[in-house]
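Input.
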Amino acid sequence: MPNNMEGRGLTDREIMQLCLELEKGRARSIASVLLETSHSELRKIYQRCMDTVLDNQKQIFDNMRQ
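Output.
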């Protein structure tokens, strides 16, 4: 559904696409940290962050398909 009155702004789909790209970037960053982290507690924290990012990405993707 467009929200760009008189040709200004972004459509809802464009906003969702930007959110999806941000989550993908976060996932890449967290994955990089996970690959290089040896501290077990820190690794657990980043693993939880990764789970959250992946859940967010799936939710955004599912909303875009509706």
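The chain has a mean pLDDT of 90.
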